Amino acid sequence: MAVLVVGSVALDSVETPFGKADNALGGSGTFFAASASHLTSVQLVGVVGSDYPMDQLRALESRGVDLSGVEQVAGSSFRWAGRYPHDLNSPETLDTQLGVFASFDPKIPERFQNPEFLFLANIDPELQLNVLKQVTNRPKMIACDTMNFWISSKRDQLVELLGHVDLVTLNDGEARQLTGTNNLVTAAKTILSYGPKYVIIKKGEHGALLFSEGKVFFAPAYPLETLFDPTGAGDSFAGGFIGYLAKTGDLSEENLRRAVIYGSAMGSFAVEKFSITRLMEVDKSDIESRVAEFKKLVEFEQEVNV
Amino acid sequence: MAVLVVGSVALDSVETPFGKADNALGGSGTFFAASASHLTSVQLVGVVGSDYPMDQLRALESRGVDLSGVEQVAGSSFRWAGRYPHDLNSPETLDTQLGVFASFDPKIPERFQNPEFLFLANIDPELQLNVLKQVTNRPKMIACDTMNFWISSKRDQLVELLGHVDLVTLNDGEARQLTGTNNLVTAAKTILSYGPKYVIIKKGEHGALLFSEGKVFFAPAYPLETLFDPTGAGDSFAGGFIGYLAKTGDLSEENLRRAVIYGSAMGSFAVEKFSITRLMEVDKSDIESRVAEFKKLVEFEQEVNV
């Protein structure tokens, strides 16, 4: 089944303790598409400026990403520049230039208006709501992401959006900010009360938690010695997660758990190199091997009658 | 099999956002013993002052903890006072009075000199080395803990100690400090090169990692809504871990993984109330239920031939 993703398509300039990339492919839609395309076909909707290196982006087409919803308009592309400290925690933003993204008002092409899976990547919640209005049949699953900026500036619209989605992904800091509570279990319960059936709280190097009514699943982050650039890890996680659900078409809790592991695997690849480089290199057998390593990482047998 | 633990027996005054405890039982040896005693018999060696509430400590005897190695001498007991912030991360130390602990020089009673399992809780590495000299037969397993203070003030002695132990537990910050590297996988490899066969890196609310040559096991922290006071979580973890190994006498990698889960379960109980209160309340069925919940928390089936 196909996934429609609406998000940013940007150019990132990133500095980490290991090197520097200038104007490399970035943005939530780009990372999501590069990741999900390993598992299913992807339709990407976004906007870029006249300066965007479309030839580089078109590499995604060879993986089955339909780029016909990426509009190229006069002006500058969305550019972000950031620097990660030695511990690779939160980056310092050096520069943000929204460019044509500032007036992004996603128009979903008619042929994309009936998606089976829809991912609303991190954009203004008002735009996320507008996308929902353009979708003709209810997708099997609608998932969304967000960020601290929208939680503080457009909280009401975000909470309204959460009443319309099946699943939301957000990081631990955002979950705390949205709910005003430090305890993540309590935060997840509060977010579930806004409407979604599932909440995924991403904790970066500390893994991810999938919450549903009365249930919780935990997936560790893969213990990488080669962590290189954390940019895009969350969107790559979402791409692996939704991509796996779309591939299998199975929304059982058991399959959602597996999907979280696929998400974690794709996130772990994304951070091994700058931009989407590593996501474009790995193949099916790399992905299956890493999923198997996740299994080994947490596996233990409970002894009965100790 | 019995476990010998050498550590501090203290009085803690702790303030958390949820309440305050004054002069409650604390110390690494106390938490370890309260935890391990659910799984095996424990011999505790430590020192307290004439002011120590021995009647309260004796509650441990009903669980099979042999307190005859806890020396009571003239002077004040080791007292620590701390306050946890709203997010329950690292406490602010308000006061530390070493009292009789300042001149602690553990003498292992002859009847304890042949332990099958030995845990050297967080004390001066020189004293930990002295304890080793008093042990007549090589225990099946020697494990130790440490802290930032010893890493900076007695690094050489600590590294010497690591050449004599089978396993070391330390938290993520301490692992980074000891090795001068941010990446925990690299840090664990470096620590293994100092001698131990196993390294456990404790990440508090983010779980624990068990490293051995070329292998890693991850156990999450239990997602608690009732996290109350983190004091003693690490020593309770160690008590559950070593206690389970001593109970089963099995040092296979499979059993070490299970032991990490028992450690995580005991740590998760410890933080539900002040001091060792919760550790003294829980019973075998509570522990087995929590271990089963850990299993459910991480369980997923890998699909073959996707």
Which terms would index this structure?
homodimer, alpha/beta, 9-stranded mixed β-sheet, 4-stranded mixed β-sheet, 11 helices, 13 strands
Description:
The structure is a homodimer of 306-residue chains. With 306 residues, chain A is of the alpha/beta class. Chain A contains eleven helices and 13 strands. In chain A, the strands form two sheets. Chain A has a nine-stranded mixed beta sheet, sandwiched between helices. A four-stranded mixed beta sheet of chain A has the order 3-2-6-7. In chain A, strand 6 and strand 7 form a beta hairpin. Chain A is globular. Chains A and B meet through helix 7, strand 13, helix 9 and helix 11 of A and helix 7, strand 13, helix 9 and helix 11 of B.
Break the fold down into its secondary structure elements and pairings:
Two copies of one chain form a homodimer.
Chain A (H helix, E strand, L loop, with lengths): L2 E4 L3 E7 L2 E8 L1 H9 L5 E8 L4 H4 L7 E9 L4 E6 L8 E6 L19 E4 L4 H10 L6 E5 L2 H6 L1 H8 L4 E5 H8 L4 H10 L4 E5 L5 E5 L2 E5 L13 H16 L4 H18 L6 H5 L2 H15 L8
Parallel strand pairs in A: 1-4, 1-8, 2-6, 4-5, 8-9, 9-10, 10-11
Antiparallel strand pairs in A: 2-3, 6-7, 11-12, 12-13
Helix pairs in contact in A: 1-8, 3-5, 6-7, 8-9, 9-11
> Assembly state here?
homodimer
How many strands, which pairing sense, and closed or not: the largest β-sheet of chain A? Answer: 9 strands, mixed
Shape of chain A: globular
Order of helices and strands of chain A: EEEHEHEEEEHEHHEHHEEEHHHH
